[in-house]
Structures are given as structure tokens and as C-alpha cells.
Predict the structure.
Amino acid sequence: MKLSEALDVLLKADDEAVEAKASAEREAKAIIQKAHDEYAQAEDTLLSEARKEAANQMESARLSAEKESSHIIALADVSVARMLEQFEKREPGLIARFADSLAARYAARGNGGD
């Protein structure tokens, strides 16, 4: 083999090595970009799912609060109804005692008392 042939072989081998390196770099960049894109997509999906879950929990909490407030209002209505019922039961006696008390005071004034 002549020196020029050996040099040609070495130059071709060097060109092939440069091309192989460039190809490997392009492939590595493509792999890295693909991994980055997949990671970003997965992260977006996780964030979206987390937002949906948070919205569901907020809605559930809102509904629970509405249910609890309705229950409290119902209990308050029952309590007010009981108070009114008790007042209505005691009202005639209270009015009669108050009227008797007033009448006694006026009677005492008329009899020279007070």
C-alpha cells in the first residue's frame, strides 16, 4: 500500500468519524429534546390533574358548607318555633299577671297607698 493510499484511507476514516460524531450529536440532541418534551407534557398533565382535583375538593367543601349551613338554619328554625310555642303557652298567664300587677298598683293608688 502506498503512502497516498494510506492517507486517503485515513482521511476517509476521519471524515466518517466526523460524520458519525455529528450524527451521534444530532441523535443525542433529538433524544434530549424528546425527553424534555415528554417531561413537560407529563408535568402539564400532572398539573392539570392536580387543578381538577383541587377544584373537585373545593366544590365538595362548598357543598358540605352549604349542607351544614342549611342544617344550622333548620335547627335555628326549630329553636325559634319552640320559643314561640313556649311563649304562646305562657303568654296568657304573663299578660294576666302583668294586668293583675298593674291593677293592684292602680288600686293601691286609689286607696291612698303609694
